[in-house]
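Please fill in the sequence for the structure shown.

STRUCTURE ENCODING:
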């Protein structure tokens, strides 16, 4: 069929299907490493946050697909963090296993602690 084309193992085909199911509105794009061989830029149609998935390697995407199980918002959170912090697969896996997405939403803040609330009330009155 295509003698020079590789990576179509049953497992990889399964991940390709999962990828499509998680991000159905995203258009096809070459892998990140392929961009370095070309000078031209390939614009994409659609939401910028969805295009971020093409800025991380396929191995990172497979890990995110496994751990986020169809939760696109959670998956994009990890994609953004991977890009921002240049995470390796091991670091990404560590943050997925420790559920950074959930922990970051519950960060301790003293903004509305009783002391702060009392101080605000005193300054208003």
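FILLED IN BY: designer on duty
SEQUENCE:
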């Amino acid at each position: 069929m295509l003698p020079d084309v590789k990576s179509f193992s049953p497992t990889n085909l399964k991940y390709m299907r999962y990828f499509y199911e998680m991000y159905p509105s995203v258009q096809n794009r070459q892998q990140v490493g392929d961009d370095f061989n070309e000078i031209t830029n390939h614009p994409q149609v659609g939401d910028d946050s969805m295009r971020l998935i093409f800025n991380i390697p396929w191995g990172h995407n497979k890990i995110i697909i496994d751990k986020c199980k169809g939760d696109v918002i959670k998956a994009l959170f990890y994609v953004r963090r991977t890009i921002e912090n240049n995470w390796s697969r091991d670091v990404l896996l560590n943050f997925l296993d420790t559920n950074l997405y959930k922990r970051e939403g519950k960060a301790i803040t003293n903004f509305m602690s009783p002391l702060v609330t009392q101080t605000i009330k005193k300054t208003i009155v």
